[in-house]
Amino acid sequence: MEANSKQSEPMEDEEEYVLLDLDGVCGKFDIPTNTPYVLSGLETLNPVLVIGDNLKLIGEYEETIGTCFVFSESDADPVVHEETGPSETNLFTGKCIIDPNQVPAKQVKPIACLHKILKFRLSP
């Protein structure tokens, strides 16, 4: 009876992320920003990516070695130094100082991990 109760529980869909690798066609074609595209057949061995009206690419999955992580990068707030203390010689008491020579910092956050890369080539 336990087996029946386990079978009736709904299975959760597991999310899977795939990296679309366009290096094989990059530089060969000028693809304007915001060009419409259609990606179909992700569940097949050779998905198809159609960009605009005239560029058709065929994909092939490659397993990654280990796990690949995908990160997002954003600007981080600058480091602010605040001088405090009872010293009478401290001219900057209570003031915030930002170093003008400080290189802008970036904040990196992990988004997902992937196990497959989808490499595209020009359709024959």
Automatic annotation (TrEMBL):
<dbReference type="GO" id="GO:0000127">
    <property type="term" value="C:transcription factor TFIIIC complex"/>
</dbReference>
<dbReference type="InterPro" id="IPR019481">
    <property type="entry name" value="TFIIIC_triple_barrel"/>
</dbReference>
<dbReference type="InterPro" id="IPR042771">
    <property type="entry name" value="GTF3C6-like"/>
</dbReference>
<dbReference type="GO" id="GO:0006383">
    <property type="term" value="P:transcription by RNA polymerase III"/>
</dbReference>
<dbReference type="Pfam" id="PF10419">
    <property type="entry name" value="TFIIIC_sub6"/>
</dbReference>
<feature type="domain" description="Transcription factor TFIIIC triple barrel">
    <location>
        <begin position="12"/>
        <end position="121"/>
    </location>
</feature>
<protein>
    <recommendedName>
        <fullName>Transcription factor TFIIIC triple barrel domain-containing protein</fullName>
    </recommendedName>
</protein>
